[in-house]
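In response to a reviewer's request, we include the raw inputs and outputs for one of the modeled complexes. The two entities were modeled together in a single run.
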Amino acid sequence: MTAPTLASVPRDVLRRHLGSEGVCLRIPPFTARIRSPIPIVGEGLATLYAEYELLPSDGTFADFHVAVVYGRRFPKALCVFEMDGLRPFTPLAVGEAFAFLEWGLNWCVTGYCHTLISIHAAVLERHGRVLIMPAPPGSGKSTLCAALLLNGWRLLSDEMALLDPRTGLILPAPRPVSLKNQSIEIIRQLAPHAIFGPLARDTMKGTVAHMRVPSDSLARAAEPALPGWLIFPRYLPESPARLVARAKSEGFMQLAENSFNQNVHGRPGFEALSDLVARSDCYDFTYSRLAEAIEVFDRLPLPP
Amino acid sequence: MNLPAIDLLVDALLAPTRLTQLDAAQWDLLIRQGRNADLLARIASVCTAHALLEQIPARPRRHLEAAAKLALRQRREVYWEVEQIADALAPTGLPVVLLKGAAYAVAELPAAEGRMVSDVDILVPRQHLVAVESALMMKGWVSEAKSAYDQRYYRTWMHELPPMRHFRRGTVIDVHHAILPLSARWHPSSEKLLAAALPVAVNELDELDKLDGRIMVLAPEDMLLHSATHLFQEGELAHGLRDLVDIDSLLRHFGTADAFWQVLVPRAVELELSRPLFYALRYANLMLGTPLPESVVQAAVNAPGGRQPGAFLAFMDSLFLRALRPAHATTSDRLTALARWQLYVRSHWLRMPPSLLIPHLARKALTISR
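The model returned the following structure tokens for the whole complex.
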């Protein structure tokens, strides 16, 4: 018997649970109990987390108890993210409630999960090796990530690389891919069948929508993999796709800068990151057209 | 009073063998309460000491390990920070007398095991406050209080300078010249505290020669009295249970020496701190089962501020037994918020007379609403 998924729950039942004791979802490698009386949150979960395993409400250990609840209603309705009663962020418009849940879950991982080293990066896998793309917002990292996972790469995460310092492996944490502004339309055209969640307009990042994780990436969420490529992407208008080898020392520095909690790990953390860089090929990548970019990544030589 | 149980959390801190028997739902509750109380790393250290960590299920265990990693990191940073402070204060010729978390860490007390420390607190003689402040500013610490009112408020009435933050490292130091505000009812003598302070041999600090005897902590009884004063006079109840765990740990550790128990109450009387000591002993014993010699309990009751009418004590119990619990939905009842508020008001009442308090609160209310 396969485990029940969120899809097995009728929408009205889901909404009722979300509004009361919450639903326990296995969001690999974590378990979250999610509560929210806000309809858009239920809608986003039903659309994007349909294939995630649903755990019993009683007797389940949850790593995080999170909620997005209503804040003040006037003059503009706001919502607040809660991590077990703690409110780490200022309220946002109710229309952003689902995106707020996604951002809040990211914060839970980077803020509490210090057995792992978390790095701000898009992470994919092919032929058993992991591609890590650390990059600041606006570099086109998520767009590139979405395009690659639609073209044969397995998604580990579009937001963070979780490095287990004891094994040197990257743990998959597949969650919906966050896309912004024009990227949403670009990816929709590239993959007309891709499933998108609610659109959050006028956020600090512009318009945001999340794309459902491919079933295969989710099914293989328990398979960690070895780092293989460290690539720093940059979207440059009108530029041809260009992959340029980069000094490993520089790659290391930039990787460390993008780490959320490397400092917590002290020396073993430093060593785990240098091991990661040592076994990865390092490149800078500039591009403007996704089709060209996909071709370059298809031809990436397998690292030793 | 029928408060929700916190026996899981208390047992995890004191009798952790029970932890191997917990089911998933109990782990869920324990991790939530422990995280809220900032005690996960403490639980992890207790488990490690009892060689139990490996027997804990992987999912909850990784939260304990994560917290332990963070606490260890903070402890390293505190050692480094103390070295920087000692370096900055070298021109003043004053010792660095550490208080609270930094003191427990540097003195390597059991209370420091798995305890989070972010700020460093030091005690200096009031007449040297200006010299200390300038010396810290020379090395990059900048006052956090921006408004002229706040600056004046701290400097006229409080027992510490406004917090100072290092412009590069972002670390915070609180410079105290007393352990209670100048405007408070009681005036424990800082001279007496400083005179009894003890140098620590700091194994973790590299340049011992340079620091030679300049890092100091309060004498055991004074350290306990300060911890009690901080928790029971100042209304700093955000981490009430964590602070009570400090008190419990200090009492169990120092209490192995009879001399400690003999001087504790007389010293509290001498420093005008017998009331907070009475509360610290009472609630550490009630909530954490801290073992106390009967003679010390009696002496604390007979000290000034110790004997209280039964109805009054029952009322204080109803406040403290609520507010000292983690501020979590599963550990609170419908009176918890009120209890916290009443203790907050009490701390201000003890902090300054009404002639000062009312204008101060009015000013704060206006600034916040602006």
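As requested, we also summarize the result in words. The mean pLDDT of chain A is 94. The domain at 117-175+213-298 of chain A is CATH 3.40.50 (Rossmann fold).
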